[in-house]
Structures
1.
Amino acid sequence: MSIVVICAISLLNNNETSGQNSSEAGGPVAASNQSQIVLSKVATANTIITNKTVFVGGFDTDYSITGTPTNIKYSEDLIISSIVEDFTKSPTVGYVMVSKSMSNSSDMTGITNPFASNEQINQKIQGLLSKSIDESTNSDTDLVEVQCSFGNSLDVFSCSSYPLVR
């Protein structure tokens, strides 16, 4: 089973937030107004059922932030909090594996918990987004896109910024 969710949220300069959900496939909405930022999301997941047992398969959530470097930097806190809140409310967040370089404390049986805590997930997302937003402000273009991908392990979380041509 595969689930695809596409969501676009416009973050306007006057701190108004409006949301729009869509089940139609397509690319990110271009920021046509210089004073707005477009935040879009595509989420996929699969579930495996074997011998009347259900397993969570792979999953990915991709976010795209499009706008001017100045507007993205100005709205950094709102962008980060929106993405953190959205991702941590997803049903797959409890299945994100901890990085190999990190370790979670073991329970009373001495077995190490393989799953990342919400705090670890939040810190990873905040760090990656902050770095990419800072990089986007160094762009000489009028329009940039910050792309983030969060999967089933903290090791594969990533964000990058790209200049866009109108």
2.
Amino acid sequence: MLPFKLVYHPGYDLNLGEHVFPSRKYRLIHDRLLEEHFAVPADFLEPQPAADVDILRVHDPGWVQRLKTGTLTVKELVKLEIPYSPEMVAAFWLATGGSILAARNALSDRISINIGGGFHHAFPAHGEGFCAIHDVAVAIRALQHEGLIQRALVVDLDVHHGNGTAAIFAGDRSVLTLSMHQFHNYPSEKPDSIIDIHLQDGVEDEEYLSRLNDALAVAMGFAPNLLFYLAGADPYQQDQLGGLSLTMEGLKQRDSLVFDTALAQNVPVAVVLAGGYARNTDDTVTIHCNTAKAAKDAIA
């Protein structure tokens, strides 16, 4: 058995059909980790959907109601960029419950991975870029409300800027936001994170890892009680929605750097997967599985 828990639910699939976002990846990751004997069924925990009281600490009641009743406006649906369905809404509530569960597990096990989540483009009153509910923000607020943590660090290594995260936590001294992303990419408007690393197109492993190392050294001075790691697979050189040039090995080194830096200071890490749109979905699955393997190596 693994020294930490993996959080997964079959309902994570957003039911998108033919879409650039392969939300079937969650099932494929789960199945791959079992097939490779990296994990056994007992290593997985199945979350409950997040409670509305938790969702409403971050999101506007009107947005939540429109999501749950299927009454989003055409403008809201265009901005969200994914088709509406009850299964889609249920998946966001489940993924958010999974991120809350992973955060709680990380406090006891040092690391926990939600095989889902990382919907960092969601704002309090609207969704953007495939993201309807900001699971990471909801999880942080839940743990703060319960008195389990005071300070959280969000390390967002998706290829896209964490605009929803920056907006939600703007002016909040209890949460430090770090986003390292391709500058000339979605979203066009990038609210200020506490630490923004704007990367130029085509950045490769060496520069990426060097700049990440420097950024983490600064961010860890915040002395967080929990690090939320958005381990996007989309900085990969073959990603359809990215323009960076990281290799699979570089991405695994990235994961190891985050885990090793946090654990060296006894800071627990909750992982969510965020984006990944490789031309070959199998590559995205491999990158996400490698994150779990890097976590095991770090905690050994």
